[in-house]
């Protein structure tokens, strides 16, 4: 009976080998996960990663995959800089409400920090309401943002977008049917 239990224990025992690695050298997202969901690293006020700087970088705690041990900390956790959106308190929902209900008076542009455009909209009654409609669309698409270059406060897993822009240095891959 004892040899059978020993044999069953041998077959069902999981053998793990910890690999010691410099976790800053990990390349693929399958090797680690950032930010570590077990830690509350999202600031409830800005809905972005805590410690997000104006340069759009934040240092967060990450967790390495199973059986990877980081040499920096001696366990599976490590810190890494990841991109984030720096916010300065301008809420997208507030901006949209101002644009819909008071956009003809330019209040939305005053709120975002564009007093010149706000005054122009006020004097022309929102550009005869056509400018107000265009502003609603541009703000909803997040093309028009705060004047200080910050991002809108949007829920972290909300409807935030990332606009991909091209310029003269952008290479466009030609397609076969062109």
UniProtKB/TrEMBL annotation:
Keywords: Glycoprotein, Membrane, Signal, Transmembrane, Transmembrane helix. It comes from the Eukaryota. This is TM2 domain-containing protein. Residues 94-137 form the TM2 domain. It is found in: Membrane. Its main location: membrane. The lineage of its organism: Eukaryota, Metazoa, Ecdysozoa, Arthropoda, Hexapoda. It is a multi-pass membrane protein. Residues 1-18 form the signal peptide. GO terms for cellular component: membrane. Belongs to the TM2 family.
